[in-house]
Design brief:
seven-stranded mixed sheet, 15 strands, alpha/beta, (S)-3-amino-2-methylpropionate transaminase
Length: 425
């Protein structure tokens, strides 16, 4: 399939993965200029959790555009900001009771790094292999999901140390806990050999790897990190940019591990597609941030705040978090049944509506080619999916949380036919 390209006036730094000349979106569907319908199981990379153009969010945005388009936060008091933080506090633990907002995930990660350094007066950050935290220089320095993100931009920010992650696809299942113990031992060793606790401000991790392959680590690994941070007076940052706002069947993925981070990074699903991100921490930590040392012109924008407030209301009123769990359980079971039928699918994993199917070739090597072929065959039939993982060998499912069982069944039928076509059956 030949993929359309933008004109030469648009930078090629944006790769284009479909040939859809988009006209509009509605619910879980995208429509092109000719009226063709596509089931969107990408959600704009985990953004449109309430579906495309949810009418309540659209109404809130329209009403706000007639009042104020931009109100700079250091110049004007805006009660919407208090409304937003109060609404967020309903779904975020009271321990995280103070917020800072910006526009993008990368900006929020940058803010979390700066906050951690000011709050602890320590310089270094530990990240974990396979994590994705953004593409601005500070956030990119913590990103190890794929080398393409870092290639040509190094040397990056100093003071960053990478610890192993128990990505256990290549290990036998009975080795999972052994691998976890090894990774935690390596983390302890890192603190004894490269960055001591006295100079380590924070550890940052995605509770479920996103771009790194949709991998949920064992609970013992996350709890082990929490214990090590507690023991060494190190802040724990959870990057929930992709996992937040109901994506995993809980409002936030840290709930699956029965812990609370010291700093929570949020974005993507917060405003149904409008640019907004933020970090949450305890007020005691936030109060150590030197006033005026960080900020931004646009965040939080009034229109984005209006969208976020209504997004949270929609998630609650329509019980979309519970729907994500129920539909995710159904999707996971159906994909695991496909795994038994097609050995090229070596693993199916995930939580809620954040599910990855990992492919291998006939020799058991990463199935980059077959995953891309399946993705393209799905697109031809009207299903939009994306790949991820270090070799782009994982097809990921991230549909809007509004998706119905009938819509998932149709998507699964297309996916099955695409696999058969890719294998020449």
């Amino acid at each position: 399939m030949k993929v359309k390209q933008h004109s030469d006036k648009v930078s090629r730094v944006w790769p284009l993965f479909t040939n859809i000349d988009v006209d509009y979106g509605e619910g879980v569907h995208i429509y092109d200029q000719s009226g063709r319908e596509f089931i969107d199981c990408t959600s704009g990379i985990g953004v449109t959790n309430t579906g495309h153009c949810h009418p309540r969010v659209v109404k809130a945005v329209k009403e706000q555009t007639e009042k104020l388009l931009h109100g700079q936060t250091t110049i004007l008091y805006n009660s919407m900001l208090d409304r937003l933080t109060n609404d967020l506090q309903k779904i975020i633990p009271e321990k995280l009771n103070c917020f800072f907002f910006s526009n993008s995930g990368s900006e929020a990660v940058e803010g979390a790094i700066k906050l951690a350094r000011h709050a602890t007066r320590k310089p270094n950050i530990i990240c974990f292999q396979g994590g994705y935290h953004g593409r601005s220089i500070g956030a990119l320095s913590l990103t190890t999901a794929k080398s393409v993100y870092r290639s040509g931009y190094q040397p990056l920010m100093s003071g960053v140390f990478v610890s192993p992650h128990p990505y256990f696809r290549q290990y036998r299942e009975e080795d999972v806990e052994e691998r976890t113990r090894h990774c935690l031992a390596e983390l302890e060793y890192l603190l004894h050999t490269q960055t001591s606790p006295d100079e380590t401000a924070a550890m940052i991790i995605e509770p479920i790897l996103g771009e790194g392959g949709y991998v949920m680590p064992p609970e013992s690994f996350i709890n082990g990190i929490r214990d090590i941070c507690n023991k060494n007076n190190i802040l724990l940052i959870f990057d929930e940019i992709q996992t937040g706002f109901g994506r995993t069947g809980e409002y936030f993925a840290f709930t699956h591990f029965n812990i609370v981070p010291d700093i929570l990074v949020i974005a993507k699903g917060i405003a149904s597609g409008l640019p907004l991100s933020g970090i949450a921490a305890n007020k005691e930590i936030m109060d150590k941030w030197i006033p005026g040392s960080h900020g931004g012109t646009y965040g939080p924008n009034p229109i984005s705040m209006a969208a976020a407030i209504e997004t949270i209301n929609v998630l609650e009123d329509e019980e979309l978090v519970n729907n994500a769990k129920e539909m995710g359980d159904f999707l996971l079971a159906e994909l695991q049944a496909l795994k038994k039928e097609y050995p090229i699918i070596v693993d199916v994993r995930g939580k809620g509506l954040m599910i990855g199917c990992e492919f291998v070739d006939d020799n058991g090597n990463p199935g980059t080619v077959i995953a891309e072929k399946v993705r393209q065959n799905c697109l031809t039939r009207g299903l939009i999916l994306l790949t991820c993982g270090p070799y782009n060998q994982v097809i990921r499912w991230i549909p809007p949380l509004t998706i119905k069982k009938t819509e998932l069944e149709k998507a699964l039928t297309i996916f099955t036919l695409a696999i058969k076509d890719s294998l020449g059956r």
